[in-house]
Structures are given as C-alpha cells and as structure tokens.
Write a structure and sequence with these properties.
By secondary structure, the protein is mostly helical. The chain is built from 10 helices and 2 strands; from the N terminus they run αααααβαβαααα. The two termini are about 25 Å apart.
Length: about 260
C-alpha cells in the first residue's frame, strides 16, 4: 500500500476484505430472528406492527455495520495477523531500518496472503513494486495467494450499502411520520399529477444512478489501463520513493 494514500480508504478496504462476509451473514440472521421474535411478540399483543417493522429494518442494519467496521474487536474468527511494513519495520534509525528490510522477505514468505491495496499510484511507487517482486520471488505459488483490492471499489461498496440502507430508513421515516398518508391523499385527490411527479422522481433517480455507475465504470477502466502502463514503463530510478535514502537500501537487497 502506498504510504501517501488516505488512511481511511485503506482502513475501509481492509474492513471490507476481512469482515464483509460475516457482516452480511450476521445482518441476515438477525433480520430473520427479529422477524420471528416480532411476530411472536405481536401475537401476544406485546408490540405493534409498526414496532416489528422498525426492528426488522434498523436492528439488522446496525448489526451489519457494527460487524463490518468493528467485528475484529469482538469476533475471534475475524482476528488475524497482518504485516504492515511501516508499522513492523523500525523507522527510528537507518541501521534498524536496514535490518528490518533484510528480514522482510522472511515475513512475506510466511504470509498466507498478499493483499495489494491498489490505487492509481501503486505501481509507480518503488516500495510497492519491490515488495510485490520479493513476494513473488519468495513463494512458488504466489499467484494463488495475491489479492488485488482497489481501494475505491471497497469504498464504493460500503457507500452503496449506506445508500441502500438510507432508502430503506427513509421509507420507515415516511411511514412513522405519516408522510406516506399525505402522499396517498394527494394521489386520491389528483392521480394524474401525482403520477407525473412520481415519474419525474424515478426518472431523476435513474439518471443519477446511471451517471454514477458510468463514472465509476470509466474510472475503473482507466485505472486498469494506468496499472498496465505503470508496470510496462516501470524503471528503478524513475519510480517514486517516499524517502529517497531508501532507494540504495532496497537496491542492495535486489542484488
């Protein structure tokens, strides 16, 4: 991962990679549990229909995002060891850094998986390309253990989940506040105008969705072309290095 990339993008990407499957399962399981418990409670006149609908919607959403963002803090099977060069290599002195760099290949060889938090500048960075090269050199079946995770796609997935959740919650808010009743009354009084407004709203939503999808699709295609160009045109002396004094140290390990 490039050091200059935004920390929150890399953090969200790691949360999505490690936690999203468990978060989806937990959300669906809680939704079914809330539905069953809600129906049982309603049959005994303990809660209203409205309360059942709210719990079936809101509780699973809270569980999903809690597990997605913080699941590794309280679910043991989500806890895993991750090697981050910046955190695991002593950066205080050049001598300590050299020692860490010399032993880096051992950590990479023992790693079960190599995750590339990719952005547009990844393969133009000397450290990123060097670590990938060391990993491929140290493991015979390295291709089977490499995961390239574009950070913007992980963020986009989480934003999409938030957007879908917002629409569901908006429906709950409209129902609870009585706004839906007002809309139904408007439909009864003037169906043609109501249908025109509805079509305009849906058309606007469709245009916005298609525009966003086209933007991110074109961005993804351009990113893939950029990655191919970076790998093709990569040179040792032309690659960017966060600390220029690291370049000769890495060169020694290559030789």
């Amino acid at each position: 991962h490039p050091w200059m990339s935004a920390w929150w993008k890399k953090g969200l990407s790691l949360c999505f990679i490690y936690n999203h499957s468990t978060a989806l399962f937990a959300g669906h399981a809680v939704s079914l549990a809330m539905l069953v418990l809600g129906r049982l409670a309603k049959s005994n006149s303990l809660v209203s229909d409205q309360m059942v609908l709210l719990t079936v919607t809101w509780v699973p959403v809270l569980v999903f995002f809690t597990v997605l963002l913080f699941g590794q803090m309280f679910l043991s099977h989500l806890v895993c060891s991750t090697f981050l060069d910046k955190a695991c290599i002593n950066q205080e002195t050049e001598e300590e850094k050299k020692k860490g760099i010399r032993k880096l290949w051992q950590s990479l060889r023992q790693s079960l998986r190599f995750i590339i938090l990719w952005d547009e500048n990844h393969f133009s960075r000397l450290w990123c390309v060097w670590e990938a090269a060391i990993y491929f050199k140290s493991k015979k079946d390295a291709m089977n253990h490499v995961l390239i995770a574009p950070t913007f796609l992980s963020v986009l997935n989480i934003v999409g989940c938030c957007a879908a959740t917002s629409f569901v919650m908006l429906g709950d808010v409209l129902r609870v506040t009585g706004a839906l009743n007002v809309m139904f009354e408007a439909y009864r009084s003037d169906p043609n105008r109501f249908e025109c407004y509805t079509c305009a709203f849906l058309s606007g939503s469709y245009v916005c969705a298609v525009t966003l999808f086209s933007y991110f699709l074109s961005h993804f295609i351009e990113s893939m072309q950029t990655m191919e160009g970076q790998l093709k045109d990569f040179t040792w002396h032309g690659a960017e290095c966060f600390k220029e004094e690291d370049r000769p140290v890495l060169a020694e390990e290559v030789r």
